[in-house]
Design goal:
40% of the residues lie in helices and 21% in strands. The protein contains nine helices and seven strands; from the N terminus they run H-H-H-E-H-E-H-H-E-E-H-E-H-H-E-E. It is globular. It has 216 residues and is of the alpha/beta class. Helix 1 crosses helix 2 and helix 7 packs across helix 9. It starts with a helix and ends with a strand.
């Protein structure tokens, strides 16, 4: 990507507020993220097994593309998206209007800190590019584990993780947005402390991507 394109992308991201998208700038950023995260999502979802009848949650569902992709595999179950930004909820509902109308999906306004679901409600939970912004990551991960049934799976996907060779520009963004960006070792510790007994990771060659998979 040319330098001018990177600058334009960074400007659009800043205007849209990735921590909590708002207004027209937020809607434009969410639409762009549906496209820019598509390859990460396609790669990452390979690392989780879905049954067609599963009940699945997407935390920080953003523009709704991840939910739509999972719906291609969860054909008889139920998908739920949740996001604490109302603009994201609106965008995700618009993107998945047909699935919502068919009763296969619902999208709620709420926070990972207090998930409005019973213990063990979900067979699987997924989050894409949202963990960076979670308040109290340790406690939030425990809340995620709470709503997953015993033997169920949590999959976390991120375009970056803590590593020594992160480009300086990305390090600057981590600092600018106060992102939580653990190393693989820190991810494993966090997942196990939250109650995930089996933790595995995958890394994309040529990228800084990580897929962290925890089994409850």
């Amino acid at each position: 990507m040319a330098e001018a394109d990177w600058q334009k992308r960074d400007r659009e991201t800043a205007e849209g507020n990735p921590r909590r998208p708002e207004g027209e700038a937020g809607r434009a950023m969410l639409a762009r993220m549906n496209e820019s995260h598509a390859k990460l999502v396609a790669w990452g979802l390979v690392h989780i097994d879905f049954d067609p009848h599963d009940t699945v949650l997407d935390i920080g569902c953003g523009g709704g593309n991840t939910l739509a992709r999972m719906a291609q595999r969860v054909t008889e179950g139920h998908l739920v998206g949740i996001d604490y930004a109302e603009t994201s909820v609106e965008a995700s509902r618009a993107f998945n209007a047909g699935l919502i109308e068919a009763g296969r999906m619902e999208i709620l306004h709420g926070s990972v800190e207090h998930l409005p679901f019973a213990d063990g409600h979900f067979d699987a939970v997924v989050t894409v590019e949202s963990f960076y912004f979670w308040p109290s990551p340790e406690e939030s991960l425990k809340e995620v584990a709470r709503v997953i049934r015993r033997g169920g799976t949590f999959l976390l996907l991120a375009e970056i993780y803590g590593r020594d060779d992160l480009p300086e520009g990305i390090r600057a963004k981590v600092a600018e947005y106060s992102l939580t960006n653990p190393t693989p070792e820190e991810f494993e510790r966090l997942f196990r402390a939250a109650g995930f007994s089996d933790v595995t990771m995958a890394f994309k060659d040529g990228e800084c991507w990580i897929a962290v998979r925890g089994v409850r």
